Amino acid sequence: MKKRGLSAVVTTLIIILLTIVAIGIVWVVVKNILDKGSDEITLTGLTLDLEIVRAVVDGDTLEVTVKRNPGEGNLVGINFVFSDGENSAVARRDTTLAQLGMQTFTFTLSQLPIGDLTSISIAAIFETSSGKETFGDVIDTSTYGSSELGSGGGSDAPGDDCVELCVPEQTCLTEGFDCGSFEDDCGDLQDCGGECDGTDVCTNNFCIPDDCVPLAPLDACTNAGYECGNLSNEETCGNPVNCSTVNGGTCSEQNGGDPNWECVDHVCEEITYIEGGIIDNVWPPGAGIYFDNDELTKIDNLYYGYSVAFSGYDSECYLIIGYSYDEAVYPNVIVEMFLQQPLEDLQAGDTYEIWDQINDCINSLPVTA
Fold first, then answer.
1. d(CA 221, CA 350)
2. Contact 220, 235 (CB under 8 A)
3. CATH number of 45-164
4. DSSP state at residue 311
5. Domain ranges of the chain
6. Residue 217 — φ and ψ, nearest 5°?
7. Does residue 125 register a pLDDT over 70?
8. Mean pLDDT throughout 327-351?
């Protein structure tokens, strides 16, 4: 009886020991899977933010300027996806573009195995904490609504005129359209819905009663808040009204001929730089990374992330990555720029303009002294 009792105890101990060993083996396997998975789970794909700020064709050359917005992540490259609407091609460019930095990438259209280029998309390539490269999802896309942009695959490319990629501002939603379809400002056809209810008639994309009586053009423009551009809504019975003409001409003409006034979302706005002046000092000499001026607004970081243009550099705007003011250290504001190459000719006495939007800055070029 004692032997049988001892045998039962030994058997129980062996079972317990085998169970512990089995649990250990399972834990090792699960831990390896979790460790491997943790390498893939990262916030970098969400926080790393890239933006296409400009895309221009010149002959057979395509230049795409990319800006990196604030967001953590170890960027090691960018995948560019080119499409003609049916076929696509991917080209990788290695880069360690810093936050708030910009870089221009050049491609040869004839080397892209696609037809007429209609869109460009970008996706980040980043490195995880273990050093493994990971491909992110598409972050930004620019489209163009016709074949004017250029051709890949050895097709005939356009002439020397630069054509920017188009991102449509007109949509059924932004225009308030009810029905029908229309060609937006990029040349693409947009469908705004089906038939109107009852006896209403679809007139210029609005459902209008068949007995509609339009307001006077000036009243219609005033009610809609339009100072410029064309208006077509229920109050005009769907008929287009030129609010620029109604209000006395173009925005420039409405403001004494000043060319800086433009029509923005049907309202006249003065498009101009935030601050401008004459550079006091530039350093290091022959590099031009920093400049200062005693009249710049003395608030630390005020224009961080804005853009600046200079007389003598008539084709570029530069990102401001430092706007520093500390009276105890230096009496002037110090402006630091992100440069792809040195501004060798930048010097004291040159004119500068600081803009809050890089596209407005680019459109303003050249800067005159």
1. 44
2. yes
3. 2.60.40.10
4. B
5. 45-164, 168-207, 213-271, 275-364
6. -50, -45
7. yes
8. 91
